[in-house]
Amino acid sequence: METEKILLRKTGDAIARFKMIRDGDRVAVALSGGKDSLTLLEVLLLLQQRAPIEFSVCAFTVEQGKFLSSFEPLAGYLKSRGIDWTYHRDNPSLRLLDEQPDHGCDVCSRFRRRAVYQIVRGLGANVIAFGHTADDFCESFLRNALFTGRTSALPPVTWSGKREFRLIRPLVFVTEDLTARFAESLGAPVIPCGCSQRSGAVRRSLRGLLAELETEHPRVKESLLSAMGNIETDRLLDPRYLGMEDCVPQSNQALRVLTD
Ligand code: SF4
Q: Burial code of 90-108, b = ≥16 C-beta within 10 A, e = fewer?
């Protein structure tokens, strides 16, 4: 299947380039119920059979009270596939939802992070895989550049505090048209999250902007991803990367001349 081949190649490239998975790792996939994390889980299971190294894969879901329908259908699918999956109802998150129904994403993410580390610790995994896609990386890059004044996106690989877990995003090169096609071909149920329907105005504009650009420039996301990995620091405006250590006195002098 063409979609599967492309997915395996792009995910394999990311795993190799960023040394995401190593021999003996136990990888826990954060399964949100959406098409992206489900694709990630299935692709990692396929790669596990072909990789020259040994690693194991399990999955988990944190229930924070935001799913719009029961997880039962997906649970049935995962069981029929023999996938090692844990479903965790996070009581502190559910209490938070009762007490502060309008809480923001920052609080929700903090609660989720705490629950995730607790679950993954129990699963004996040392790596946590998230389903962020190329679209998420591009949006994050544009959001930071356009609205927060930083050249930054998401880390493809990073560590939790005290380096207890390696956090990886193997779908960095995979766009959502691919995950949508693949998830549909699996025939797996997708469980909607209430929050996916209230995506913010900035996110909607960035998605719209990328979609509009793509009608004339279909490789625009690929190009943005390349830009994130091909930084010409001497052509940006950060003095830390301009090799100016030796000429600070002259710069000050020049500045004085300019401002006198
Ligand atoms: S979008 Fe919803 S689920 Fe996601 S962090 Fe925000 S509040 Fe939580």
A: beebeebbeeeeeeeeeeb
Domain presence at residue 256: no
- With a Cβ cut-off of 6 Å, ligand 1 is lined by 66, 105, 108-109, 193, 195
Residue 22 placed within a domain: yes
C-alpha dist (Å) from residue 121 to 87, 129, 189, 206: 14, 14, 28, 36
Cβ of 244: how many Cβ atoms within 10 Å? Answer: 11
The Cα angle at residue 157 between residues 14 and 44, in degrees rounded to 5: 50
Nearest CA to ligand 1 atom 5: 105
Rounded to two decimals, the pTM is 0.92
Residues 165-194 have pLDDT tens digits of 999 999 999 999 999 999 999 999 999 888
Q: How many domains does the chain have?
A: 1
Nearest CA to ligand 1 atom 3: 195
Domain that holds residue 206: 2-237
Tally: H helices and E strands in the chain: 10, 6
Distance 109 CA to ligand 1 centre (A): 7
Q: Tens digits of per-residue pLDDT, 125-168?
A: 999 999 999 999 999 999 999 999 999 999 999 999 989 999 99
Q: For the ranges 21-25, 93-97, 248-252, which has the lowest average pLDDT?
A: 248-252
Q: Is the residue at 245 inside a domain? A: no
